[in-house]
Amino acid sequence: MKKETFTDKMMKRFYGIVGPLDEYKRREIDRIGNICFILLFSILLFGNLIALLLSDQYPKAVAFAYPSILTLCIFVLLSFIIYRIHKMHLVDFDEEELTKKELKQLHFAGLKAGLNFGILMWLFNGILNLIDHVPLLQSFFSVKSGVLFIFHTGFMGVLMHFYLKLHKKSTNKEKD
């Protein structure tokens, strides 16, 4: 059996694919990725040109609007990726094709996603507190930060766990 390369693992992780990465899935992922790259490259090219032209007259407006618009465009592209992947059934999986290791990892995937989300939100909230001139260690290790971490982790973990269970049931129903 051929060992998975690092790029294959990254593609599967980014696009949420479980199981083997066959030629069909690889081709569709490459096509979706190419479309998004072309769109993002065009947006960045024209956005930088517009920002360069307007930066002398309206520096504050450009400093606020440019990152906001880029972030919005990235979220739109991510929504497009998610829509296309679900429409093409690239995230659907067959339990017979999975190894024991993949099945074991899939069992707690929602809880792992919740833990990752909780850690990111904990870091994000701690860094945001720097704006209010709160010391870094105090913002990371306060009671409020701990409670928010537990809430974010628990809520997102449970939500993702049930979402993945429902997704698994719906794919099993479609195959039957």
From TrEMBL:
<protein>
    <submittedName>
        <fullName>Membrane protein</fullName>
    </submittedName>
</protein>
<feature type="transmembrane region" description="Helical">
    <location>
        <begin position="106"/>
        <end position="125"/>
    </location>
</feature>
<keyword id="KW-1133">Transmembrane helix</keyword>
<keyword id="KW-0472">Membrane</keyword>
<dbReference type="InterPro" id="IPR021697">
    <property type="entry name" value="DUF3278"/>
</dbReference>
<feature type="transmembrane region" description="Helical">
    <location>
        <begin position="61"/>
        <end position="85"/>
    </location>
</feature>
<feature type="transmembrane region" description="Helical">
    <location>
        <begin position="145"/>
        <end position="164"/>
    </location>
</feature>
<dbReference type="Pfam" id="PF11683">
    <property type="entry name" value="DUF3278"/>
</dbReference>
<feature type="transmembrane region" description="Helical">
    <location>
        <begin position="35"/>
        <end position="55"/>
    </location>
</feature>
<keyword id="KW-0812">Transmembrane</keyword>
